[in-house]
Amino acid sequence: MYFFHMSYLQESPAVIGSYYDKRIVGCPGGEEEDEHDVVWFWLEKGKPHECPVCSQYFVLEVVGPGGPPDGHGDDDDHH
Q: Which of 9, 48, 64, 65 lies at a CB distance of 3.0 to 4.6 Å from 19, suitable for a disulfide?
């Protein structure tokens, strides 16, 4: 999990590194009066996310081989 505490707009989003194609991120809002309870969300490769409380933007940068964090691809047979 990743806990983030700064102010980022759509034009310059927070870039979150991940070994996989998605990860859990927590947004506590901005500084001082802009803080809010932590909002946890899945951040996925190619899908920028806007915090629903403070409107900060986050994008995922895959810094490893990628793939799903559970080790199974979308096309794997789970019988």
A: 64
